[in-house]
Amino acid sequence: MSMKVVTDDGYGLASLTSRERQVLEYAAQGRTNAEVAAVLGVTTHAVKFHLSSIFRKLRVKNRTEATSTYWRQAGGRATKA
C-alpha cells in the first residue's frame, strides 16, 4: 500500500479547510458523527458534508481510509481540535 502524501495537485491534509481538519481529527479519535457535531456545535448533516469533502480531497472512499491517511500524514501526532 502506498502512502498518500501532499502533492502539488492539492491533495492531502494540507488541502483541507480548518473545519474539515477538525472533523477529521475527531473522526480519527473514534468519535461518532453525532459526537463530532456536538463538540463543534453543528448538525450531523454538516459533519457528513465535511466528511464527504474530506473523502474527495484525500482521494479516499470511506472514514477508515481517511483516518488512516490522517494518522500517516500527521505522523501519529494528533492536535487538539
Summarize the structure in words.
The chain has one domain (13-73): Winged helix-like DNA-binding domain superfamily/Winged helix DNA-binding domain (Arc Repressor Mutant, subunit A), CATH 1.10.10.10. The model is unreliable at 1-8 (pLDDT under 50). The radius of gyration is 12 Å and the shape is globular. Helix 1 packs across helix 3 (44-58), helix 1 (18-28) packs across helix 4 and helix 2 packs across helix 3 (44-58). It contains 4 helices and no strands. The chain is mostly helical.
CATH class: Mainly Alpha
- Tally of structural domains: 1
In terms of DSSP E residues, the strand content is under 5%
Oligomeric state as shown: single chain
How helix-rich are the residues, as a percent range?
55-70%
Total helix count?
A: 4
Largest sheet: none
What order do the SSEs take from the amino end to the carboxyl end, as H and E? HHHH
- What separation lies between the terminal Cα atoms? 28 Å
Q: Give start-end ranges of low-pLDDT stretches.
A: 1-8
**Rough shape?**
globular
The averaged pLDDT comes out at 86
Structural class by SSE content: mainly alpha
Taking all Cα atoms into account, the compactness measure Rg is 12 Å
Indicate the topology.
Blueprint: H1 18-28, H2 33-40, H3 44-58, H4 63-73
Helix pairs in contact: 1-3, 1-4, 2-3, 3-4
Task: Please tag this protein with its features.
disordered N terminus, about 55% helix, single chain, Arc Repressor Mutant, subunit A, about 80 residues, globular, mainly alpha
